[in-house]
Amino acid sequence: MSRPVIVVVAAGPGVSGSVARRFAREGYDVALLGVDEEQLLTLAGELEGLGVAVGHAVADITDVAATSAAIRRFGEHTERIDVLHFNPSAFREKDPLELSVPELLEDVALGVGGLLTAVQAARPFMSAGGRVTATGSLAADKPWHRAASLGVQKAGLRNLVRSLDAALKEDGIRAVSVTVRGTLGQDERFTPDRVGEAIWDAAHQDEADWRTEVPYPV
Questions:
Q1: Where are the domains of the chain?
Q2: Exposure of 182 by Cβ count < 10 A (0-12 exposed, 13-18 middle, 19+ buried)?
Q3: Cα–Cα distance between 70 and 81 in angstroms, integer?
Q4: Beta strand spans in the chain (E)
């Protein structure tokens, strides 16, 4: 396969869909992984309309075996993965006095552990110039106490991205998280398409000045 390939983890109608469309417009073939097949099929149809090849798989991101197998199938089919975009997080409206340890661990397994699973599965198909991108959040720095697990997820995600970048950079693969410093829909800056554009830019930043975290808006 000659065209570059992006794998979008937790694909759906929001930011992840905008990321998929942004890369597709640049000629990337797209592999979609998510839990809602109807949403995946809708997005796949939109992407095919842009003239790229699209594959999709339904999997629970917290299911390590299923997620790993799906990403390996994508890589074996395309023979390359150039960008892995990680989008999921769990929103659970419970404060720290209500949140149980099992609930916290369940949410972290999705919002942080899923990235570990995805990168480990994708790594054999990535080469120099490959990129790992992740949708971060201001919750990492300013958590809302009524959704305590979200702040833990986003802080952990950012930390893991930094570790992944350090582990991968000698092979020419870089990792970056984009910290969305606001709420989607609050104004014209915070549309999924604007955030998708920021993720595109972060993936294509100058490697000589690489940042593992990019705030949006700057």
A1: 5-216
A2: middle
A3: 13
A4: 5-9, 29-34, 54-58, 83-86, 131-137, 174-180, 213-216
Check if the beta carbon of residue 133 is closer than 8 Å to that of residue 178: yes
> Edge to edge, what strands does the sheet with 83-86 contain?
54-58, 29-34, 5-9, 83-86, 131-137, 174-180, 213-216
**What Rg, from alpha-carbon coordinates, does the chain have?**
16
pLDDT, position 183: 86
Give me the phi and psi of 94, to 5 degrees please.
-145, 135
Q: Which residues pair with 179 in a beta bridge?
A: 136, 215
- Are the beta carbons of 35 and 59 closer than 8 angstroms? yes
pTM: 0.96
Q: Which helix (H) or strand (E) holds 153?
A: helix 148-168
Residue 54 CA to its chain's centroid (Å): 17
Domain 5-216 class in CATH:
alpha beta
The answer to whether 39 touches 12, Cβ cutoff 8 Å, is: yes
Residue pair 48/21 in contact by the 8 Å Cβ criterion: no
| Regions of the chain with pLDDT less than 50 | none
Residue with tokens 């808006």: 217
- 129 DSSP assignment: T
Whose CA is closest to 57, among 42, 37, 82, 72?
37
CB 189 within 8 A of CB 147: no
pLDDT in tens, 168-183: 999 999 999 999 999 8
